[in-house]
Amino acid sequence: MTTTVEQTAENHVFEADVARLLHMMVHSVYSDKGVFLRELISNGADACEKLRYEAIETPSLLAADPESRITLRLDEERRQLVVEDNGIGMRRDEMIEALGTIARSGTRAFMERIAENKAAEGAQLIGQFGVGFYSCFMVAEHVDVISRRAGSEEAWKWSSDGKGSYSVEAANLVEAPPRGTRIVLHLMEDAKTYTSRWTVERIVKEQSGHVPVAIRIVDKPDGEPVQITDGTALWTKSKSEVSKEDYTDFYRGLSGQYDEPALTVHFRAEGRHEYTALAFVPGTQPFDMFDPERKGRMKLYVKRVFITDDAELMPRYLRFVRGLIDTADLPLNVSREMIQESPILAAIRKGVTNRVITAVEKLADGEPETYLKFWENFGPVLKEGIYEDYERRAQLMALARFHTSASPEGHRSLAEYVKDAKEGQDAIYYLAGGSLDQLKASPQLEGFRARGIEVLLLTDSVDSFWVVNAPEFEGKAFKSITQGTADLAQFPRLDNQTPPEQDSAGLATFIGFAREKLAGQVADVRASDRLTESAVCLVAPEDGYDRQMEKILQNAGRLQGATKPILEINLAHPVIKAIAAVEDDASYQEDATFLLLDQARILDGERPQDPRKFAQRLARVFERSVRS
């Protein structure tokens, strides 16, 4: 066999995002640089699992060395730390793809966040964004990666100092691992503590103690390997054998995050289908929670062999859940098509989903303050299930929490809303919009607030969808206060004031005048019982979409042309009375009428339809007021 390959090293330049990321890592100060070791061990464990999967069809890949392992070699004198696995390894093109680019999404978001946050938060962000291999440049002035793909006689060496470029060349076959990847870190002077066995072993046990691959350590160049973790899969143990710290450690390695799980669900199902599930609800929002593809992050194992992380093992509204499912009911060579169509996985999916939602319900009932933190993180996603998951709609609606006009800074459940509803109130009123401050200042809210009628303040885009699909809650239908008539006459105002007379000749004439002038822009002009402070507001017709839903659909290009709104006028407002009283100046009344419509648009978060005409009308009204 030829032991060396004569080939000139190829030099490459990192992609722009990678170069920026490396620069930030090398020149930033982190509170816990040791996170790099967890990332490298996690990559090594993934490589071992990929090999086990490929060996299902090609057993010869494992024949000479069937036991997966990760070996850490320490050399204090040479200031080196080596992380080696006997996993799948890499070919030349795979090495360039894996180490020259960042394939995982979120890189740019990571760099923006790290630039905005103080240095002490850096390690948390590394874990959150999973930048993986590149974290080693926090401690290494130079890195060599030597890898041999399982079943291949060729080996390749990748080298870089993390300053913008890297080289790839054929490796010495004698020095290369028989299979797998060896990462040699030439440590910086201030990072030589990572050649200390005590330091390295502590980090491994704290952060990677439960990866499903045994980890060994060699603390001297001529030393013997000592096993420091046994590679026993944590999920195969009973809950009584696993501590909270163990779960946290496993969660961090599994999810690539650095926070603590808010909820842990670990159980073994027996009976018609047998499987083990270990699921975590993160303590903070994962960076990819609002990824448009809405993919889940649960891993599928069959008899402890990793199969895929691309199976739909949880509904998409629970995509923030991290974890795994291990079953013996599927064949090891399960195909992607079988995964998609498998009734076994459908049953497992249902069972795990029910257990996770039950755990969330227990949290809501037993620890309401902790639950509110969960809701603030994941409520916008969980509400997607109200319109997607009919079977669990009632459960999800009971879990929902809302800001309301009665508690704008706090949270209320629908059950609390219904309990405190006014006598004779047959609807759950809501107001949807872009921000809480905007909703609290909305003119449509005035009449409800004046009568002590609570209104849900909905600020998430998903809210406009689920309220349409959820027909009712405990017998009360959902009704937007920006659509149709308010029907507030049956509820007395808290200040005992009576509604203004709506049959005044001058006011009735003005409404007819406004209706005629605005006929091309509004569906109707009418007196309002929902306004108490503002002069005007816009509402949607009874049929169709409410104001916010229409805006969302228009912005998404899913609605051709807007429905004409209805302009409601507060007959008790002094401005309206003053305009109606100017019966001898039709041009002034016309300008004032169009200005009232534009004022209503502005209050609704829109711009005047024609800014130039708006300015001209405003100037003429100012001029008349000065003359008079």
UniProtKB/TrEMBL annotation:
Residues 32-191 form the Histidine kinase/HSP90-like ATPase domain. SMART domains: HATPase_c. It is found in: Cytoplasm. ATP binds at residues 39, 43, 85, 90, 105-106, 128-133, 181, 336. It comes from Rhizobium pisi. Keywords: ATP-binding, Chaperone, Cytoplasm, Nucleotide-binding, Stress response. Residues 552-628 are annotated as: C. Molecular chaperone. Has ATPase activity. Homodimer. Residues 1-336 are annotated as: A. It comes from the Bacteria. InterPro entries: HATPase_C_sf, HATPase_dom, HSP90_C, Hsp90_fam, Hsp90_N, Ribosomal_Su5_D2-typ_SF. One of its GO terms (molecular function) is unfolded protein binding. This is Chaperone protein HtpG. Belongs to the heat shock protein 90 family.
